[in-house]
Amino acid sequence: MARKNDTLCLHLEEDEGDCRFYGAVSFPIFQTATYAHPALGQSTGFDYSRLQNPTREHLEKIVAQLEGGIDAFALSSGMAAVSLLSELFELGDEIIADSDLYGGSIRLFDNVLKKHGVKVNYIDCYKTDLESVITPKTKAVYIETPTNPMMNVIDIAATASICHSHNILLIVDNTFLSPYFQNPLKLGADVVIHSGTKFLSGHNDTLAGFIVTNRADIQEKLRFLIKTTGAGLAPFDCWLVERGIKTLAIRMEKAQKNAFAIAEFLSKLPEINRVIYPGLKNHPGYEIMKKQARGFGSMITFEVKNKALVDKILKNVRLIKFAESLGGVESLITYPTTQTHADVPENVRLKNGITDCVLRLSVGIENEEDLIEELRQCIIHNA
Ligand SMILES: *Cc1c(COP(=O)(O)O)cnc(C)c1O
């Protein structure tokens, strides 16, 4: 019988019944740069840690297993993953990207990819007819769902079938839901990206990134690229991420439970204009989420009634930290306008609804009542 997701967070199927490495239950950290060879033309399977390292390989297998891919690549950050992936494209290629993406991805596309002659066209994938913007030069569609930070939901299977009928790749940044709640490859995507810094490692203490694929041709190109460009994740950081993944299931469940309570609490406050959480039935993407994901996650975006309230909330939070990032055990509140999305052109940001009254909450695993009390203090008592 196939192992379930929560079990797969803890155990690699091929390790079952294995007592390698003295039976160590925690996979060892192979802190080595290089590997000795028994003789000319022979190898242990490992030659040099830029190419591969046992700790990294173990983590990559776990992430590949969780996403249902044939291989995964562990990189030094989420941006290192997006950057490595972008090496698949060349001068004259075009990529269609959703306009509501992590700001760092937009910065990479508009500054680095552009320099290499790869053009990125931004559209609102949740509402635009994709067919109408595909050109003969289009090589890939790049999306996040739910999007960051506006939480628009894109139908992955429908998007994948359009991409495949035009022979173009569908790349999905699955950071917001993690493989515990959503598996884009199983819905037809070709490549999944993760900022492993977020839910996968889960403790706001490590930077990491992943590319996962189920296509052998892409796997082969990426193995060449990781060896050549050298941004593979260091052994100790691999171990930290692997340790984080062991509790992915319980962290995701607890954070989601808190998020539901907070979204409902915020929805009732007159000081809040709108609460965008895909688990609320009034969210336009609710039905698609139910179809393609096993949960709604723990990211909430909300708009307060005026900028003065933003200032007060960010000055008064104590338990919740005013910080960039998301997906960790500690709750964080982010101001996309000056933080994650500062490099998104202002007209695009405003068109997407990221006004100067929008805040993004990454709900952690603290006690639900403590979090609500903290928000009540910051919002109501200061309004
Ligand atoms: C944080 C983030 C990234 C970038 O990852 P880093 O690990 O910070 O480099 C990419 N995509 C999304 C959706 C993110 O939240």
What does this structure look like?
Helix 4 (103-115) links the parallel strand 2 and strand 3 (119-123). This protein has a seven-stranded mixed β-sheet with strand order 1-7-6-5-4-2-3, sandwiched between helices. The chain has a five-stranded mixed β-sheet with strand order 8-9-12-11-10. The protein contains 13 helices and twelve strands. It is of the alpha/beta class and 383 residues long. The protein folds into two domains: 5-245, 3-Layer(aba) Sandwich (Aspartate Aminotransferase, domain 2), CATH 3.40.640; 249-379, Alpha-Beta Complex (Aspartate Aminotransferase, domain 1), CATH 3.90.1150. Helix 3 packs parallel to helix 4 and helix 11 (307-316) crosses helix 13 (368-379). It starts with a helix and ends with a helix. Bound molecules: pyridoxal-5'-phosphate (PLP).
Low-confidence stretches: none
Q: pLDDT average, as an integer?
A: 96
The largest sheet has its strands arranged as: 1-7-6-5-4-2-3
Write down how many β-strands occur, each being a DSSP E stretch of 2 or more residues: 12
Return the domain count: 2
For the biggest sheet, the summary is:
7 strands, mixed
Query: From the coordinates shown, what is the CATH architecture of the largest domain?
Result: 3-Layer(aba) Sandwich
Each distinct ligand = pyridoxal-5'-phosphate
Tally of DSSP helical segments: 13
Distance between the termini: 55 Å
CATH topology of the largest domain: Aspartate Aminotransferase, domain 2
